[in-house]
Amino acid sequence: MYSNIGVEANGQFCSIMKQHSNRFFVATAAMAVAVAVASAEPTDAPSRVSAIPTPNQQAVTMKIRIDVEGTVVMATLVDSAATRDFISLLPLTLTLRDYSATEKISDLPRRLSTQGAPSGSKPSVGDIAYYAPWGNLALFYRDFSYSSGLIKLGRLDSGIEAFQRSDPIRAKIDLVG
């Protein structure tokens, strides 16, 4: 007979299977919980999304809905500290301004975590990113070259046309689910 033991440590969820009749599994579970608690990184904001699947679950998919002046665009986010920090700001209404005929940008209310982020990335059409040096959100409607400090948050599922115009646009961003 098996049952799940779950422990949440600073927003991280660990799930361990134990066998009721075997003390070895109980001891192993206790050690794993201790390691999870000891290795968990402190955070100021509680996690709203678990990225570590339990044995009977798949990885969590984080989706956002972007309402661009009445046109709804869906996007899928990657799991990262910056993305989780971005999600903590939602819902959010922004004015997106055109930048270099390549992307729409907007300042965020505060800077996002860059913990564990790569030093930069090469954005593609549809990428949603955080540009750490300026502290802004960027939605790319054209490919661009590698940019130091650019952290990919996710990707538009469709609807890039809503962003392919030069005038500023209002967008409301909500977490789905």
Number of helices: 2
What's the CATH C level of the largest domain?
A: Mainly Beta
Number of domains: 2
In the CATH hierarchy, what is the architecture of the largest domain at level 2?
Answer: Beta Barrel
The strand line-up of the biggest sheet is: 3-4-11-8-9-6-5-12
Secondary structure category: mainly beta
**Oligomerization:** single chain
Sequence of secondary-structure elements: EEHEEHEEEEEEEE
Report the end-to-end length measured between terminal Cα atoms: 33 Å
Tell me about the biggest sheet? 8 strands, antiparallel, barrel
Average pLDDT for all residues:
77
The stretches of 5 or more residues where confidence is low (pLDDT under 50) are 1-58
Which fold name is given in CATH as the topology of the largest domain?
A: Cyclophilin
* Envelope shape: globular
Number of strands: 12
Helix content: 10-25%
Computed CA radius of gyration, to the nearest angstrom: 19 Å
β-strand amount:
35-45%
Which features characterize this protein?
two-stranded antiparallel ribbon, single chain, mainly beta, 12 strands, Cyclophilin, 2 helices, 177 residues, eight-stranded antiparallel barrel
Topology:
Elements: E1 2-9, E2 12-19, H1 23-39, E3 62-68, E4 71-77, H2 81-87, E5 92-99, E6 103-107, E7 120-121, E8 127-131, E9 136-140, E10 147-148, E11 150-156, E12 169-176
Antiparallel strand pairs: 1-2, 3-4, 3-12, 4-11, 5-6, 5-12, 6-9, 7-10, 8-9, 8-11
Task: Please provide a written account of the structure.
With 177 residues, the protein is mostly beta strands. The chain folds into 2 domains: 2-39, no CATH class; 62-176, Cyclophilin. It has 2 helices and 12 strands, in the order E-E-H-E-E-H-E-E-E-E-E-E-E-E. The protein has helices at 23-39, 81-87; strands at 2-9, 12-19, 62-68, 71-77, 92-99, 103-107, 120-121, 127-131, 136-140, 147-148, 150-156, 169-176. The protein has an 8-stranded antiparallel barrel with strand order 3-4-11-8-9-6-5-12. The chain has a two-stranded antiparallel sheet with strand order 1-2. Strands 7-10 form a two-stranded antiparallel ribbon. A hairpin with a 3-residue loop joins strand 5 and strand 6. Mean pLDDT is 77; it is low at 1-58.
